[in-house]
Specification:
alpha/beta, 17% strand, binds 1,3-dihydroxyacetonephosphate, 254 residues
Length: 254
């Protein structure tokens, strides 16, 4: 793979897996993925499994991510989780602004930007999700939506912070539907996002930011997607819930 950005492939387990099921999956992943160094491998279990999973991956090449985080540091925010709590379990990455949270929890770009600032303040790395709905794509508004989300969700970050951030392009119509964006659609959206980064920051910064594709990634389409010049990894939902399929996505991407 001839890219100067290291691939990063993350599994977003969403609201799946008890602690026992999580440990089972991790056991399989450690066997399947041992010795892979070419890709940054991240798993994002539910909060309730972070403690046990964090211990189980200590001696491995798998890093830990969380699926959300509060923009606040501490205090009266019932049901929220702060950065310092995630750091207790050696969490390194935090998914922010997933389309499911934008839709069901009504998360705005403004809120996501506050969360991204809090993630960086804690020296963690955000995986900031953006993506258009089917209606927006069909109305020819994809670029407009992506630009608004990228600018709004990353506003206020420094050049150093954006370089350490990951962006996940997840077309909403491709999530959990079995409909993957074509490689051309993915490459086009990724290249556009990178152009927005050039205009927000500069060429050097934009060249360094890793942009993942998410939406029905599976072992059979991973290689083609990852071979696109601006696709630097994947954010995998359903296929990350089983050791063999997540491992095969990673192996097929190298
Ligand atoms: P699927 O891989 O199940 O389509 O989910 C993608 C996703 O939302 C990852 O965050």
């Amino acid at each position: 793979m001839n890219k100067d950005r290291k691939l990063i492939i993350a599994g977003n387990w969403k609201m799946n897996k008890t602690v026992a099921e999580s440990l089972d999956l991790v056991r399989g992943l450690k066997i399947e993925l041992a010795n892979i160094k070419e890709v940054d491998i991240v798993i994002c279990p539910p909060f309730t499994a972070l403690s046990e999973v964090s211990k189980a991956i200590l001696d491995s090449n798998i890093r830990l991510g969380a699926q959300n985080m509060s923009e606040h540091n501490v205090g009266a925010y019932t049901g929220e989780i702060a950065a310092v709590m995630l750091k207790e379990f050696s969490v390194r990455y935090v998914i922010l602004g997933h389309s499911e949270r934008r839709q069901y929890q009504k998360e705005s770009n403004e809120l996501i930007a506050k969360k991204a600032a809090a993630v960086h303040a804690a020296s963690l790395k955000p995986i900031v999700c953006v993506g258009e709905t089917l209606a927006e794509r069909e109305a020819g508004k994809t670029n407009q939506v992506l630009e608004t989300q990228v600018r709004g969700s990353l506003v206020g970050l420094s050049k150093d912070q954006i370089t350490e951030s990951i962006i996940a392009y997840e077309p909403v119509w491709a999530i959990g539907t079995g409909k993957t964006a074509t490689t051309e659609q993915a490459q086009e959206a990724h290249a556009f996002i990178r152009r927005v980064l050039v205009s927000m920051f500069d060429e050097t910064v934009a060249r360094r930011v890793r942009i993942q594709y998410g939406g029905s990634v599976k072992p059979s389409n991973a290689r083609e997607l990852m071979s696109q010049p601006d696709v630097d990894g994947a954010l995998v939902g359903g296929a990350s819930l089983e050791a063999r399929s997540f491992a095969d996505i990673i192996k097929n991407s190298i």
